[in-house]
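Example record used in the benchmark description.
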Amino acid sequence: MFILAEMKNVTRILPEYFNMKLNDAIAIELNKKLANKVVLNVGLCIALFDITALKESFIIPGDGASHTIVHFRYIVFRPFMEEILLGKIRSCSQEGVHVTMGFFDDILIPPSALQHPSKFNETEQAWVWEYDTGDGNTHDLFMDAGDTIRFRVTAENFMETCPMGPSGLQEPQEGGEGKVPYSLTGSINEPGLGILSWWDN
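Model output (structure tokens):
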């Protein structure tokens, strides 16, 4: 679920941090820049793990800050394909079951990847597995918001997003809403996967 990504960056240190150890100042700046951000084709950055190398520092004319070339390792959320994870159902829609990990919300289990047969209940706004009891009857098993769910990661999608505007908000894009930079697709259509309470007994 978590990996160590080796990265390189030219880190700008403001004069107000010159009284600190260089490693500490760089750690503050790297976490400020990367924590809780998605790096394209890398994943969701969580926290700095360590600094592996510091190269030369230099000052650019007209800029009082120092700039240091840094090699470091960062803790990144990026599950491998077929990994089994636990999450909570955030909501359900015609698109499928939307799952959250608490710190990461962009997980979708599409209808084709639910236990078969499943149907969407408009009134309850929940997906329902029509479980065959084996005696010719079915029993409705609801997937409600807040339920803990076990799912298998089947796909990931990275999307280039447009730069942030002056307000810190993503600039609107032609004909659409802001893109999600990183999302996962999951599946529960096999024994042992789905709502945990289904398999407790």
